[in-house]
Amino acid sequence: xxxxxxxxxxxxxxxxxxxxxxxxxxxxxxxxxxxxxxxxxxxxxxxxxxxxxxxxxxxxxxxxxxxxxxxxxxxxxxxxxxxxxxxxxxxxxxxxxxxxxxxxxxxxxxxxxxxxxxxxxxxxxxxxxxxxxxxxxxxxxxxxxxxxxxxxxxxxxxxxxxxxxxxxxxxxxxxxxxxxxxxxxxxxxxxxxxxxxxxxxxx
Length: 203
Description:
Layout (H helix, E strand, L loop, with lengths): L27 E7 L2 E6 L1 E5 L4 E4 L4 E4 L1 E4 L4 E6 L2 E2 L7 E4 L8 E8 L4 E3 L3 E6 L8 E6 L5 E6 L5 E7 L6 E7 L4 E6 L9 E6 L2
Parallel strand pairs: 4-12
Antiparallel strand pairs: 1-2, 3-6, 5-9, 7-8, 7-10, 10-11, 10-12, 13-14, 14-17, 15-16, 15-18
């Protein structure tokens, strides 16, 4: 079933899983199904959106979007709401990042029928001399999330703790670092005006 918003709504089920349309599907103008085959015609959808990136200065970073829809499709990348000159491709690559590249990135995707904006992606670039396990690059994204980055040692295990009073600390997650910068993304709770985060190295 096609809603007035161009979204696909399904009822019932079958063995092919056709009752669960992709969450990224937008601007659908027609649908059809037969046996174990289904079809949705979209004017423009973002199948994948850019993710958050944390890195040390000098490292190369890449942001990407995967759009499907009617051609031609055009792209424009933004940092902190300002268009990046020449950033007109589905992939944005910075060969040697600097701390000045930190910020909130989005991409606007357009074709003759629709225009879509991606989710805000946080990019945090720390100097190589940044102290281990200290937070930096605090950002509040346009969609209401707080992001922060810390320098860690790849291969080591860390616990992330959270507190509202600096006395009672609650374990939030445990990670094994796979890169030199760990970036967290949390949505502040309206009933908790202040939150503190702490990293602890697991022996």
